[in-house]
From TrEMBL, chain A:
Keywords linked to the UniProt accession: Membrane, Transmembrane, Transmembrane helix
Name this protein carries in UniProt: ABC transporter permease
Species in which this protein is naturally found: Chengkuizengella marina
Spans traversing the lipid bilayer: 21-40, 112-134, 155-181, 226-245, 252-272, 303-323
GO cellular component assignments: plasma membrane
Organism domain of life: Bacteria
Any one GO molecular function term: ABC-type transporter activity
Automatic annotation (TrEMBL), chain B:
Protein name, UniProt field: Lipase
Residue ranges annotated for the SGNH hydrolase-type esterase domain, each copy included: 64-249
GO molecular function: phosphatidylcholine lysophospholipase activity
Length: 330, 259
């Protein structure tokens, strides 16, 4: 413990000096205004069609649309299930007089985090994680690092801790920037607004026995906690790839391909049940909070978290074994 | 060196703070989803709908009822409701908005329940300037099944009672809007050799007309004649719902009646 602290400090400052973090800030600063504008257009469009700002009417209209889609004989079974659950969820909001999409900065942040957790957030994490070890190889600094009288596992551990620090800051940054930028358009209020949570989807039934009304800030904190965990798992896997593959580009490519395969899979695996063991389809942990239908029937929060933990554990073990045993030649 | 010391302290403090918040949120989320502890939902004791009245600056059309109003069979538009909207937009110098709340297969009892309990519907009814409605067909006939007039007639009394309640409810929520009931037509003229079904459909239309006379906002629009000759030309491929041409005729008639 005595000499791990300066190592971590060293790693954190190294990442900062490499300006990777500014890339993330830049990406967010460009993309969030785009998403905010898109959201604004959606809201304006609805108002233009319906001629009302009353959310009850808009939600009711949505329910009726879904009802008609469900009754259509051409509707696919798995979509039907999604619509039926969604109808029940919206209906509950109507009955409880809680606006599911009240336009403000906090709601936008909530939805943005929920939509980011599957692909966008992992990509941002990759920007930092991909070259943590591979970068040392390509720059040749790995030899300098390992010739110091420090055990190799401590070097790797310090990199893991530094990575965790940056994952936390990245998730915070995503939420903060999304709140600040969207708040300019939608307003900065909404922290105390009530939201519903605790949905359980069983088949096409929504179990409402455990539903709670909580203030939106609490929902946001829970959501960020889950998103943070998912990001951390992605970071661990990216670290393993970075240890195994010495080229940054190759490592980045592998992780990108895996993550994108995950989003494609979640859209089509509903009938292939053993696909649930892939970590990629489990990343959307946030959706369990708001009562969305999981991509594969039978996925639950506990399963997803356990699955992700196992993947992360295995990747950490492999990284440590390879990193401490490998000969550094070139 | 001093700047990097400062940078390190800032990063460390921010990271420690956010990480602890995230861990708290993570644990909290697991508790809420995996180990839920009952619900704190209450039944809202009163209806929380603001007092709103239809505005004169625009026209809000609300469509209620079954598949005929939903526009089943029409591939391009929202059925006759869409026709009415387009014509009103042309005739009136005001923006026209559409709330389409009709659902395939709705019966009178479902519609009555729908307008009595749903907050969104009730809000919309209060805002509407024009309410368009078809209902009752599904009470008496089930698509694809053989039509037995005696059985259908048994369902009629109940359906009419519900319809009366529907009009009463609509009027109590919105005493200003025009409420249009689109009458039934006989899609089975080809097989209806002795006119038995036609007579029955007209019997229903008559009874509904009697109800509409009780409400001064209500207006009964007949469609029976529109589909009596060359029926097939105006029906969609399911030989039950109107096609585009059929809906157009209904829509045009409604707009004429309103002028």
């Amino acid at each position: 413990m005595t000499n791990i602290y300066p190592l971590v400090r060293n790693e954190v400052l190294k990442i900062w000096k490499k300006k990777r973090f500014f890339v993330i800030v830049l990406i967010l600063a460009v993309l969030i205004p785009i998403f905010t504008y898109a959201q604004l257009r959606v809201a304006l469009n609805v108002q233009k069609q319906m001629g009302t700002e009353d959310w009850r009417i808009v939600v009711q209209q949505q329910i009726q649309d879904y009802e008609n889609r469900v009754s259509s004989p051409r509707m696919q079974e798995e979509w039907k299930r999604w619509y039926i659950v969604e109808i029940q969820r919206l209906q509950l909001h109507l009955d409880q007089n809680i606006d599911p999409k009240s336009p403000n900065g906090v709601t936008f942040t909530n939805q943005f985090v929920a939509n980011s957790v599957g692909l966008f957030l992992p990509l941002l994490v990759l920007v930092i994680a991909a070259d943590l070890v591979a970068g040392e190889h390509s720059a040749g600094t790995i030899k300098l690092l390992l010739t110091r009288p420090i055990k190799r596992w401590k070097v790797l551990l310090s990199k893991y801790i530094a990575l965790t620090i940056y994952v936390s800051i990245t998730v915070l940054l995503l939420a903060a920037m999304s709140y600040l930028i969207s708040g300019l358009v939608f307003g900065f209020n909404g922290w105390m607004q009530p939201v519903l949570t605790g949905f359980q989807v069983i088949g096409s039934e929504l179990n409402i026995n455990n539903i709670n009304i909580i203030p939106q800030w609490q929902f946001l904190v829970m959501e960020l906690g889950l998103a943070w965990f998912s990001s951390l798992v992605v970071a661990c896997l990216a670290m393993m790839v970075s240890v195994l593959v010495r080229s940054i580009a190759a490592g980045m490519g592998i992780m990108l391909a895996t993550l994108i395969a995950g989003t494609i899979l979640t859209n089509m695996v509903s009938s292939w049940e053993s696909a649930k063991y892939f970590f990629m389809v489990n990343l959307q942990t946030v959706s369990y909070l708001s009562g969305a239908v999981p991509p594969i029937q039978g996925l639950t929060l506990s399963f997803s978290l356990l699955n992700l933990s196992v993947w992360a554990m295995i990747s950490i073990v492999i990284s440590f074994i390879v990193f401490t045993k490998r000969d550094i030649l070139n | 060196m001093r700047s990097s010391r400062l940078l390190w302290s800032v990063i460390l403090i921010v990271a420690l703070l956010t990480t602890s918040i995230f861990i708290y949120g993570f644990v909290n989320a697991i508790q809420t989803v995996v180990y839920p502890d009952g619900s704190n939902l209450t039944t809202p004791d009163e209806e929380r709908i603001e007092d709103i009245a239809p505005s004169d600056d625009d026209i809000v059309i609300l469509s209620l009822g079954d598949s005929l109003t939903e526009g089943t069979g029409d591939r391009s538009e929202n059925g006759y409701v869409g026709v009415v909207k387009n014509l009103l937009e042309k005739n009136e110098e005001k923006p026209v908005f559409l709330h389409t709340f009709a659902v395939d297969g709705y019966t009178t009892s479902q519609l009555l329940d729908f307008i009595s309990t749903q907050n969104g519907t009730r809000t919309s009814i209060k805002q509407a300037n024009l309410i368009l409605m078809t209902i009752g067909g599904n009470d008496m006939f089930s698509p694809g099944e053989e039509i037995i007039i005696e059985t259908s007639r048994e369902y009629m009394t109940n359906a009419l009672e519900n319809l009366d309640k529907i009009f009463a409810e609509l009027q109590s929520l919105n005493p200003e809007a025009d409420i249009i009931y689109v009458g039934l037509y006989n899609p089975f003229t080809e097989i209806d050799k002795d006119g038995e079904i036609s007579l029955f459909v007209q019997e229903w239309n008559n009874e509904v007309f009697k109800i509409t006379t009780k409400y001064k906002q209500a207006l009964f629009i007949p469609t029976f004649d529109l589909f009596y000759k060359n029926t097939k030309n105006y029906l969609s491929s399911d030989v039950y719902h109107p096609n585009e041409e059929g809906y157009k005729r209904i829509g045009e008639r409604i707009v004429k009646a309103l002028q």
